[in-house]
Structure formats: C-alpha cells, structure tokens
Specification:
Layout (H helix, E strand, L loop, with lengths): L3 E5 L7 H10 L1 H6 L2 E2 L4 H11 L13 H9 L4 E5 L8 H11 L3 E8 L2 H14 L6 H9 L4 H7 L1 H8 L8 E5 L9 H10 L19 H14 L6 H14 L17 H17 L3 E3 L21 H27 L5 H24 L3
Parallel strand pairs: 1-3, 1-4, 2-3, 4-5, 5-6
Length: 368
Amino acid sequence: MARRVYLHIGAPKTGSTYVQNVLWNNSAALADAGILLPASAAAHDHAMADLRVAPWRDSDAYWTWDRLAEKVRDWPGDAIISNEGLGAATDAQAARAVQSLEATEVHVIAAGRDLWRTFPSFWQQSVRARSGWRFGAFLRAVEEGRADTFWHNHTAPAMLRRWGDLVPAQHRYLVTVPPPGAPRDLLWQRFAGILGIPDGLCELAEPTSNPSLGAAEIELLRRVNLALGDRYPLRTPYQKVVHRHLVDAVLKQREGTPFGVGLDRADWVRELAEQQIKELQDYPCRIVGDLDELRPTVMRESISPDELDENQLLQVAVETIVGMLDNADLLSRQLDAPPDKVNVLSRLRTRAAGGVKRRLRLATRREP
C-alpha cells in the first residue's frame, strides 16, 4: 500500500506541462528516492479519460484508472498522479478515484491562474481539443452565465470543492501560478515543496511548456475543426493526425500575434477575480504562493481571433500548407530510408524543423 499519493488535478494551462516534464525527465531519480510516477504520461492521460468516462476516450486503450491505481497500491512509498484533465471529474468520479488508491494519505493539488490569462487559454485549449466555437461567443457565454464547463473544469474553487472535500484540509493545496517576470523555476519549487522532493534531486532543464498559438493560427485550427466534420472524433486519433501534422509540426512553430480579452472587459475580469479570491480565502486549504497572484496585473489591449481579416488568414493558411509539405517530405524520406539511416534522418528532421520555424517566422513578419 502506498504511504502517500499526490493527485495533481489541474487546471489546464497552469504550468502543468512544465511540472510534468520535470517529473517525467527525473522519474528514475524519484523512484530511487521512494517517489513513484506510475507507468507513463500517456497512461495518466488514458486513465483520466477512463475515470471520467469521457466520450472522446479510446475504449481499447490499455491503461484504465483501475490499472493505474493498482500500480500505486503496489508501491510502498509515495506516488504522484498528474493530469490536468482530472479536475473536470464529477463528484462521484473523484470519490471513486480517491477510494481506489487505498493509500494511507491522499493529497490533492490544484493550481490557479489569474482570469485575464485563463480566459484565452481555456478557449484555446477547447479549440485544440476539437471545438469550433468563436472566442467572442465563449466570452459572451461567460458574461451571461452560460459557461458552466469553464468554471467547472478550469477554476480552482470548483475543482477543490469536488476533490479537496474528499481529504482532510491539511492535505489540500492550491498552487498559484506566478505572474509574468517571476523566476522560471518558482512554480517547480512550489510543487516540489508539496511533494517532498529534496532540493537538487531533479535536474531542471529549460522550462518547457505547451506554447500558445497566435490569433491567426488558432482561428485557422478552429476552422479546420469545423471542416473535419465527423473525422477523428476521438482524442488519440485527433492528436495523432491533427496535432502531430498541423499543430505541433507547423502552427506551434509560428510566431503569431497574441490574442486575449479586450480592455473593454477589464473591470468585469477584475470583479470576477475578486470573487474567486474570496471563495478561496474561505476554503480551508494550504495556499502555496499568494492569492494576490490571482489578480490580473498586466492588462493590455489585444486583438480577438474573430477580428482577423480574411486575406490575413488566407496568407497564414498558405504558409501553413508549405510547412506541412516540408514536414511530410521529411516523414516520407524517413519511412523510405534503410534502418541504418533512420537516426541520421531523425537528426535531419530536427534540424529541418528549425529551418521551417525560421521560414515561418520570416513569413509571419512579412507584409501581406
């Protein structure tokens, strides 16, 4: 039986990719220190989808929540399960997860980020998960009280009420995401302190993240999602095709124009932030960081993807097709190469990806 199990439940776009990369890159050292990350990051993702009985899950995936829980139960030390999709589980699903672990102690970790940055990141994540709604439509839904999914899946107060209420107050944590300009490793230090990871045990590479797409790039993806119809309806096929060949290979390589909430909504966002802070002040949990970090501090005017000119989008679409052709050519050469040349072509592909990124950067800066 595990001694302590730490459930890192999200929310998405709160630095979870960076924290998870550090954990998985140091999984062997952590295991030697008595801290288990069971299976793999993909296994945690499949187990999350199984736990939530998500309609987009792959029913034939090997890793289920019960299999992951069994791995944890067989470990005599501490264990970590980390997936930002866990926070969206229902009350009953969360209760099932905690009970299945049979650990001496279960700890729940949620992360919170200021709403000014959270609104565009939530919408972007929904598009990258195959949604086709417009950014403006999402913001209007929040304003009109029609965005329960956002508050349910993407905010710390709701996640903590569902998961945190299942464990003692001293085993609930809220990690606040540091503001822009904070030391790069501060977020990791906050998580490591909760998990009991000694200083120096994990090697910290350059912080990596799940980079945001620019306004034109995410709008292009939104339109592709609509055009797909009923193709790639499940999570894994969509990731293997659309993410691999379009999002990761090309759209992420572009230096697009950032987008966000307009300043005309600044007061509204501030008011919502104060309401959220008050909820968290009243909820018994350990604050790792500072609730003041949930107040937006850098609020600048920005464009909405809804406002983009059609000619601008056409230019981005053409450049994206060129980038995908470069990537397809490299993949074909790798498939056709004899085994002894595959590693060489893999290095060439990495080098060529840098070239694609440079060309896309230049194209992005070029006047239409």
